[in-house]
Design goal:
The chain has two helices and ten strands. The chain is α+β, with helices and mostly antiparallel strands. It is rod-shaped and about 100 Å long.
Length: 194
Amino acid sequence: MKNNHARHLKNITGCNHRAFTMIESMIAVLIFCLMVAVIYALYLQGAFSFYSSDTSIEVTENARKAMDAMIKELVNSSDSQCIPATVFSVNDSLVFRTVNLDGTGDKTWSDQVTYYRGGVSNSQLIRSQSGSNKVLCSNLETNDADGNGIIGVRFDKATTATGSIITITLQTRKQSLKGNVLAATVVNKVKLRN
């Protein structure tokens, strides 16, 4: 009877129970570390995609705003009032005048308007009229030496039977926070008034 009592005490204290070995504990920690590493890699990839798409949207939006401003003015230009008599285009500049209608229907023409690539590191699209300059597009929130901003602007003129058409090509780029260089090219055609 004494032996049964001793056996019963051994079961209660847990001396007979098995515990985790050191190898089993190390394998469990390894599996946990691998899961954390995979989750962290997925998080980094998501953050990288977010920053890249945010920068891409910003570059495209800035180019689109500049393009819309140019189109708004060019629509009101005419071959007869462009300097000299036709649209003057030298790779990255454009000179023209726009029509202004007063209340009586008389036309007057604005001072000469010039769009050109220039400014800081030659990476801004600038509108110049009567000695005043306005920057239309610039993506220069990071270092200029990285080549951010306007990398190309081109104005091409084609004359058709129905009038002149100006094709505007605007190329911009910006380096994202993660170091990727993202570019956008926006092309539009504008029909001038007759």
